From TrEMBL:
SUPFAM superfamilies: NAD(P)-binding Rossmann-fold domains. CDD domains: SDR_c. NCBIfam families: PRK12826.1-2 (NF009466). It comes from the Bacteria. InterPro entries: NAD(P)-bd_dom_sf, Sc_DH/Rdtase_CS, SDR_fam. This is SDR family oxidoreductase. Belongs to the short-chain dehydrogenases/reductases (SDR) family. Gene3D superfamilies: NAD(P)-binding Rossmann-like Domain.
Length: 257
C-alpha cells in the first residue's frame, strides 16, 4: 500500500456518530458516508435527523438517557458490526461564575459531555474488540487549558481526555484504538451563542468578543467542521493505525508568551 493509499479509509466501514444531525457530527457523518462507510447517527434533533443525507440511518436518542442508549445499540445491530464510534455529543454548558452555576447545571453538563461518552463506550467496547476498531472522543482545546466562566465544560473535556487515555490502555491489547480530537473554535451556531454569552458576561459587543477570541489564535481564523471530519477520516485510515491514546488538537491556538 502506498502512503497516499494509506490516507483513505477502507470501503464499508461501519460507523456510529453521536450528535450527528448537525454541526461537527454531521460533517463527520457526511465525510464517512462519502468515503464509502455505512453510517448510523444518534441525535435529539428529530427534524435534523429526518433531513440527513440519503443512506445515513439514525436513532432519535439522548446520550444522557440510558434507555435511549439501549435502543440505539439495538438499532446499531443492523450495521452487522461496528468499526468506528465517534463520541461527538457534547453541550456548551452554562457561561457563568462558579458561584452562579447551579448543581443541576453542573451535573447536566457532566452527564452529557462525560457520562454520555462512558455510556457509548460501555456498549460499544465489545463490538470494537470484535472488529479491532476505533473510538474517537470529541474533547476540546478547553480540555488542555483553563476557561473562565465555562468551568463545567472545561472540566468535562479534561475528563474526556482522561477517559480516552485510560480506554486506550485498556482496549489497546485487544487491537482497539482510542483517540480524542480537541477542536479549537469551530465555525457554526454553537460558537456564535458562546461568543454572545461571553460578550454579555463581559459587557462588551459581540464583535469585540469575537476579535478577542481570534486574537488568541495564531492564524486569526476559526476551524471548519470539515477540518474535524478530515482528522476523523485520517484516524480511521490505515495511516492512522499506530495512533492511539492521543489528544489531537485541530486548531492553530499556539500557547505563547
Ligand atoms: P452543536 O451544539 O452544534 O450540537 C451538535 C448536535 O448535538 C445537535 O444536532 C444536537 O441536537 C446534538 N445533541 C445535543 N445534546 C445531545 C444529547 N444529549 N444527545 C444526543 N445529541 C445531542 O455541537 P458542535 O459544535 O457540532 O460540537 C460537537 C462536539 O465538538 C461537542 O462535543 C463539542 O463540545 C465539541 N467541540 C465543539 C467546538 C466548537 O467550536 N463548536 C469546539 C471544541 C469542541
Amino acid at each position: 500500500m502506498s502512503v497516499i493509499e494509506s490516507l483513505i479509509p477502507r470501503q464499508g466501514l461501519k460507523v456510529l456518530v453521536t450528535a450527528g444531525a448537525n454541526g461537527i457530527g454531521l460533517a463527520i457523518a457526511q465525510a464517512f458516508k462519502e468515503a464509502g462507510a455505512l453510517v448510523h447517527v444518534c441525535d435529539v434533533d428529530e427534524a435534523a435527523l429526518m433531513s440527513l443525507p440519503k443512506g445515513i440511518t439514525y436513532t432519535l436518542g439522548d446520550v444522557s438517557n440510558a434507555k435511549d442508549i439501549d435502543r440505539l445499540f439495538e438499532d446499531v445491530k443492523q450495521l452487522g458490526g461496528l468499526d468506528v464510534v465517534v463520541n461527538n455529543a457534547g453541550i456548551a454548558g452554562p457561561t457563568a461564575s462558579v458561584e452562579e452555576i447551579s448543581e443541576e447545571e453542573w451535573t447536566h453538563t457532566i452527564d452529557i459531555n462525560l457520562n454520555g461518552q462512558y455510556r457509548i463506550a460501555h456498549h460499544s467496547a465489545v463490538l470494537l474488540r470484535e472488529s479491532q476498531g476505533l473510538m474517537i472522543n470529541l474533547a476540546s482545546v478547553a480540555g488542555r487549558l483553563g476557561f473562565a466562566y465555562r468551568t463545567p465544560y472545561a472540566a468535562s473535556k479534561w475528563a474526556v481526555v482522561g477517559l480516552t487515555k485510560s480506554l486506550a490502555c485498556e482496549l489497546g491489547p485487544d487491537g482497539v484504538r482510542v483517540n480524542a480530537i480537541l477542536p479549537g473554535i469551530v465555525r457554526g451556531p454553537r460558537i456564535e451563542k458562546v461568543i454572545e454569552d461571553r460578550a454579555a458576561k463581559r459587557g462588551i459587543t459581540y464583535e469585540a468578543m469575537e476579535q478577542e477570541n481570534l486574537a488568541k489564535i495564531s492564524m486569526r481564523k476559526m476551524v471548519e467542521p470539515t477540518d474535524i471530519a478530515a482528522m476523523a477520516l485520517f484516524l480511521s485510515a490505515p495511516g492512522g493505525s499506530n495512533i492511539s491514546g492521543q489528544a489531537l488538537s485541530v486548531c492553530a491556538n499556539v500557547e505563547t508568551l
